[in-house]
Amino acid sequence: MQKNNKHIRHIKNERLKTIKRDYRGNKVVNGRFANGDEVYAPGFGKVLKWQLSANPQREEKKKDTYAPKVMHGCDFIKSDKDMVVWLGHASFFIRLKGIAFLLDPVLYNLPMLKRRTELPCKPDQLRQIDFMLLSHAHRDHMDKQSIKTVCRNNPQLKALIPLRAGEILRSINPSLPYQEAGWYQKFDLVPDAVEVYYLPASHWHRRGVMDMNKVLWGSFLLKTPEISIYFAGDSAIDSHFEEIENLFGPVDLCIMPVGAYKPSFLMSKSHMNPHEAVKAFNQLRGGTFIPMHYGTFDLSDEPPGEPVRLLQQIAAAGLLQGLKMPAIGEPILLQDLI
Fold first, then answer.
1. Sheet containing 99-103: which strands, arranged edge to edge?
2. Are 327 and 295 in contact (CB under 8 A)?
3. Of 16, 39, 42, 336, which has the fewest Cβ atoms less than 10 A away?
4. What is the pLDDT of residues 164-194, one digit of tens each?
5. How far, CA to CA in Å, does 224 sit from each of 93, 197, 243, 253, 271?
6. Does the structural domain 3-13+23-40+67-336 have CATH classification 3.60.15.10?
7. What gap in Å lies between CA 255 and CA 269, rounded to an integer?
8. How far apart are alpha carbons 57 and 289 in whole angstroms?
9. Structural contact between residues 262 and 300, judged by C-beta atoms closer than 8 angstroms
10. Is 238 helix (H, G, I), strand (E, B) or coil?
11. Is 110 exposed, middle or buried (0-12, 13-18, 19+ CB in 10 A)?
């Protein structure tokens, strides 16, 4: 009887190409997006349990002073070389075929969350950006102040976003052109030199009190004939990584989240730990692994340097090939990865 009370439909941007055969669109149950077939929302009981529980690594975390190194300067913005530059947390600058992309820009402190690292340049120096890509609408990925700054300094900017994120974007900048996509859809605003696809992630949405899972979440693939770059967004380990590899073949460069995974009873449905991120990378048959979503904000119970140490151990054991851990602001030239 309960199942009959569910209102289920599938939605996508009907004007965009869907690359997965017979894919009906993202599943929406009673107005809320699902991870595949599962509608997931972090329960208040688990959040309360986390807040009331002692962190078994509390002392270790207090003593861990790790923070990512920062390479200061804005030469990467002026360069004409294709590259990937980490800006901290999940924020990246990517130049591909001369087109400049800015992914999940979070350039300032967040409410109740202070950055543990600096940016390599001042936010106002991020100019000549063609496209802003927003994987989902959590505030550590879609930040109002950061978006306003980027829009102010880049009048030519267009945004590539998930389904139903447009209303949030309009509330920040009503004049910013944008295009929404569902999973397995190809954006058509980008010049033909680069293909950009919106792909699955196993995550959830909440930005306000009443909007649980009202906006989609996902990942991006940027592709040229020479190279493919996958940005995983926020995601738990799930079957979509194998599915992406089945559709596109081996992925040359994978930008993978490796932080905010403890306590596992709360985080395992939202984020990957380093071992899971490496498993996903191997399912993608990745060539180069660049970690993200660690070291910039204190979001969880693990010590800040633990993801780095675990990745180094996994690589030393021969279970991870192609690990690159750039400093914030350090360009990774794509010509060196092809």
1. 178-181, 158-162, 131-133, 99-103, 92-96, 83-86, 331-333
2. no
3. 336
4. 999 999 999 999 999 999 999 999 999 999 9
5. 17, 12, 20, 12, 28
6. yes
7. 19
8. 27
9. yes
10. coil
11. middle
